[in-house]
Design goal:
The chain is mostly helical. It has one domain: Arc Repressor Mutant, subunit A (Orthogonal Bundle), CATH 1.10.10.10. It has five helices and two strands. It has a two-stranded antiparallel sheet. The N and C termini lie far apart (61 Å). 14% of the residues are buried. The mean pLDDT is 89. It comes from Candidatus Dormiibacter inghamiae. GO terms for molecular function: DNA-binding transcription factor activity. This is Helix-turn-helix transcriptional regulator.
């Protein structure tokens, strides 16, 4: 995934309404009306959110008669998860080193106290 695509995807994920829409689509495809139901937004307002999600490649919108059902595009989410995973490994290594350093400081402190009494 290119940096530009990643930026567009993270910008789409930054909004809680869009994340809620994705969570709902994780349960299966839904129409715009179904997606709008839990929100105090107009259909045009929900449609704007859906366009952002479409541009980010996170959803697709089909056509069935007069309905335009939306569905989650899990591949894009997997790409984001893979990108984050690389950094998670780095963070875990750094936290492990920090834990070791803090244990060493604590051991040194305890040895300093125990020697005088």
């Amino acid at each position: 995934m290119s940096t530009d695509e990643l930026s567009v995807t993270f910008a789409a994920l930054a909004d809680p309404t869009r994340r809620a829409i994705l969570a709902r689509l994780g349960e299966g495809q839904a129409t715009v009306t179904e997606l709008a139901a839990p929100f105090k937004l107009s259909l045009p307002g929900i449609s704007k959110h859906l366009k952002v999600l479409q541009r980010a490649g996170l959803i697709t919108q089909g056509r069935q008669a007069q309905w335009r059902p939306c569905q989650l595009e899990v591949q894009r989410l997997k790409e984001v998860a893979d990108w984050v995973e690389r950094y998670r490994e780095l963070w875990e290594e750094r936290f492990d080193r920090l834990d070791e350093y803090l244990r060493q400081l604590k051991d040194d402190e305890e040895q300093g106290r125990g020697g005088g009494t």
